[in-house]
Amino acid sequence: MCESPSVDAVMAAERAASFTKRSIKSDAKRAGLELALSMLDLTTLEGKDSPEKVRALCRKAITPDANDPGLPSCAAVCVYPALVKTALKSLAGSGVKVASVATGFPSGQYPLEIRLEDVRRAVGDGADEIDMVINRGAFLAGRYREVADEISLVKEACDDAHLKVILEAGELETLDNVRRASDLAIRAMNEAGGAHGHFIKTSTGKIQPAATMPVTLVMLEAIRDWFLETGQVVGMKPAGGIRTAKQALHYLVMVKETLGGLMTSASQAGGSDGSGEHCPWLTPDFFRFGASTLANDVLRQLAWLKRGVYMAPHDFSEA
Which among 63, 130, 238, 301 is least surrounded, fewest beta carbons within 10 Å? Predict the structure, then answer.
């Protein structure tokens, strides 16, 4: 495996904090909130999940706020493999994707063949996207080739489904490890047929800390360097711990200022330059939020911008 650059943790933290100081107002704020809404993977990953809960989540993903039908739908609904068929039926014709966790989520500690069968079943049931977890024990033990080979095998098992590789950054201990795992995941996907259009993801949401701005910045920089090396656009998904609309806007600022200047021609992933909507990472195709509580705060802020009155949290459905 190639060597990854070391990370200055202090500078990463300072740079990440700088993105929270940008002022976003009026029309730009509404546009940013609607963009964040369109990037949401509405997620339910609990032991008590049921078909009815998933159906309710799918209804919310299609129409996040029944009082404002002009709002965009969410990007995807993320569920356990056993509920993929339920989600697929509920989302039929909506354009909202079905994402499924797999590979022994969240531990990733099952035998490899079981993890691969987990993927094959979810894809066979209709999942558009697979969120896999890496074997953090193997990674921390320095068995990088083993981890890379497993990612490649999972990507092959995905067939035409898009893959999101979850690093579980909260267990990787250092930003140097986050950078190494990001580079490893991207290169492993590329070895299995190309990394373009696939994702790296911060966390399962089951371990704290989950998504943080320094971790996400380090991962975005790995994506940037891969693009500069190959021209391939790899997606990014921070997941876990992003609960407020204000936080979501901070992440979008970070994406814009880290990746927004990279596009140089219209032939690159549908972009024409590095500004605004032409940055591919400022679309749901290449950036997602993994969240279960973020949606309602975004909806509250959008309602306030439209009506000048804050809605109560209970004015929006939990699913």
Answer: 63
Concerning whether 237 is annotated as a catalytic residue, the answer is yes
- 76 in the Ramachandran plot: left (φ > 0), alpha (ψ -120 to 50) or beta? beta
Instruction: Give me the pLDDT at residue 43, please.
Output: 96
Question: Cα–Cα distance between 184 and 284 in angstroms, integer?
Answer: 24
136: closest CA among 177, 179, 175, 192? 177
pLDDT of residue 276: 43
Q: Quick one: which of 291, 55, 294 has its CA closest to 302?
A: 294
Candidates 60, 97, 164, 237; catalytic one? 237
Q: What is the DSSP letter of 77?
A: E
Is the torsion defined by CA of 21, 26, 32, 36 positive or negative?
positive
User: Closest Cα to residue 184, out of 216, 136, 113?
Assistant: 136
User: What is the identity of the amino acid at 147?
Assistant: V
The pLDDT score that the predictor gives to residue 1 is 63
For the cut 50, the answer to whether the pLDDT of residue 267 exceeds it is: no
With contact defined as beta carbons under 8 Å apart, do 108 and 146 qualify? no
Domains, in order of start, for the chain: 9-315 (3.20.20.70)
Residue 319's pLDDT band, with cuts at 50, 70 and 90, is: low
277 has pLDDT over 60: no
Catalytic residue chosen out of the listed positions 131, 164, 183, 256: 131
Q: Which of 60, 201, 256, 297 is catalytic?
A: 201
What amino acid is encoded at 297 in this protein?
D
Tens digit of pLDDT for each residue in 283-299?
999 999 998 889 999 99
Is 201 among the residues known to form the active site? yes
pLDDT digits (tens, 9 = 90+) for 32-62: 999 999 999 999 999 999 999 999 999 999 9
User: For residue 190, which amino acid is it?
Assistant: N
For residues 23 and 215, the model is more confident at 215
Contact 188, 148 (CB under 8 A): yes
